[in-house]
Amino acid sequence: MDIRDVRITPWILPLRAPFAIAQRTAYEAQNVLIIVECEQSDLRGLGASAPVAYVTGETIPTVIEALSAFAPTLVGRPIDDLGSLLALAAEALADSPSARAGLEMALYDLWAKSRGEALWRHFGGARAELVSDMTVPIVPAAEAAELSAQASMQGFHSLKIKVGDPKGHDADRARIMDIAAAAPGVRLRIDANQAFTPEDAVDFTRSLEPIRQSIDLIEQPVHKSDLAGLKFVRENVSVPIYADESACSPDSVRRLIAQDAVDGVNVKLMKSGISGALEIIGLCRAAGKGLMLGCMLETSLGIAAAAHIAGGTGAFDFIDLDSHHLLAPIAGLRGGFHNEGDKLTLDNSQHPEFGWGITYFEADNEI
């Protein structure tokens, strides 16, 4: 089957509520929908890019521009030659990781559908069930406590807590303590999104000593370029330190490993693409570093792709695939996984049009 067309469309989606972190407050999920179509079949590969400018420098216009320039290269090429298509994308979109991730997603989806294969099986078939956390954004302490209690009642056993409150670190600490009280027994993962200096990060982490046994990790406490600062924090606290914005590519992860700066990294498809994420898994496994799989503000399409990789490889110690809960319902988008509480279960069937297992209907017509 040869590729007939690559369709690239802005996909701006409302959130259920504003989502505040240290670096920004989001009011909508800015995605780009990518559909790869075939000449000899009605099969379509679905992918989505979710660019975040402060992480990779990309925006919706830059993603569309990069993909539109590259897409004609794919037309007429056989989807069966997936390896060559991915190599072409890696070279042409080397500086556009979120654009590349969305395109890789669509190519993998079409290729797997042409074979009637679920992609989590292609990536190794390690496990069909994953357990994710739920993210609590920067909101007033009482609201954070209420959200946490609700998440616990819904079956979540781990919470990711955003810090970097404009009111200061004391407000962050008070919010975390209120969350711990509102959801006793829940594991906590603290995500600073570069909010601290190294010294402040150490002081802040030590101030959480009363609930230390509930904390799994501290994520990206300092600026993404400050690898020495990451190492300083790691050497002066008892909580594992994970990199996020500092770990955007295999090369950046190699630098983190070489400096022994962190205990683990948060892998996101939008930072490194699928090919880069698979390479990072290998690097971290070889170095004995922990692995977390996270997401941007992505639809269930992006979450399904990440979940299939997590389930297939069985590589991740922590799963943070929850952004589909933050978006308002998307008409016509379905499949990929079954979600109940904190469990994501991948479909075990060998549906003839599987891939990521996602279908999308627009105006009652599949696209």
TrEMBL record:
> Does the record carry DNA-binding as a key word?
no
Q: Entry's Gene3D superfamilies?
A: Enolase-like C-terminal domain (3.20.20.120), Enolase-like, N-terminal domain (3.30.390.10)
Query: How would you classify this enzyme at the top EC level?
Result: isomerase
**Keywords carried by this UniProt record:** Isomerase, Magnesium, Metal-binding
The family database entries (Pfam families) matched by this protein are listed as: MR_MLE_C, MR_MLE_N
Q: Which InterPro entries match?
A: Dipeptide_epimerase, Enolase-like_C_sf, Enolase-like_N, Enolase_C-like, Mandelate_racemase_C, Mandelate_racemase_N_dom
> Bound how, and how many: what does the cofactor note say?
Binds 1 Mg(2+) ion per subunit.
Q: Which GO terms describe its molecular function?
A: metal ion binding; racemase and epimerase activity, acting on amino acids and derivatives
Catalytic site = 162, 268
Q: What is its EC number?
A: 5.1.1.-
- Enumerate the cofactors the protein uses: Mg(2+)
* CDD domains attached to this UniProt entry: L-Ala-DL-Glu_epimerase (cd03319)
Q: Where does substrate bind?
A: 24, 135, 160, 295, 297, 320, 322
The domain of life is: Bacteria
Binding residues for Mg(2+): 191, 219, 244
Q: Which family does it belong to?
A: Belongs to the mandelate racemase/muconate lactonizing enzyme family.
| Name recorded for this polypeptide | Dipeptide epimerase
- Source organism per entry reads Capsulimonas corticalis
